[in-house]
Amino acid sequence: MHRIFQTFIDRLSESVNLDSFRDTMADVGIALDLQYFAYLSLPHRRGDKPRLISTYPSDWTTHYLRNRYERLDPVIIQALAGPEPFKWGLGIHLKKMSTAQRELLDEASSFGIRHGFTVPIHDGRGPVAAFTFAADARRPAFERCVKDHGRALLLMALYFHAHARGKLVSERNVGGILLSAREFECLAWAAQGKSAWETARILGISRRTAAFHLDNAKAKLRVRSICQAVARLAASRQ
What we know:
The chain has helices at residues 2-14, 18-32, 58-66, 74-81, 99-109, 140-168, 181-191, 196-203, 207-221, 226-236; strands spanning 36-41, 51-54, 86-89, 115-123, 126-135, 173-174, 177-178. By secondary structure, it is of the alpha+beta class.
């Protein structure tokens, strides 16, 4: 698992577009016998579309996004409700579901998405994304992987989110000032209460490098402290 995780981190650091992010995680899935994955990043502004990176069947993802199913999906709704990872699927009951939500899961199952393990991703403002590993059945290999490597899968989901948000999302514009991908990543983790040392561990860089990017972000935003920079970031998202 250590080799798989290190390769994942190395490739993630080099990923620069949607395809490379998807391929990096897809190869992890192949190595661990995890059939599908889906990363859904929720928009900051109401009415904007979510970002989806996945290996789900394309017919399903197109249908899902076109119908704005993220607003109805019981898996996403449970991910919004709390930060704890959870399993779902046949024989595993989510919280009380409406008829429409049950129909959505039935529809997903017709595309081979019947069982999964979801990692909610929250920051200081609340839920921001959900990362799911899924399969077409409760396969023993899938169950064993989640049981034995749940902690590693959680860390992979967080790493993936941090890198994807920093490199793919145009939200690096803070109050009209464009931060670099690394500056934005470091500031975003600071907004979640992470120290420079913790941010460095998450991003796979040195503490000195994390502090360097935070200092650059402060200089660009013309503030003196990390707290002020975080406040500028929060204000730009309102």
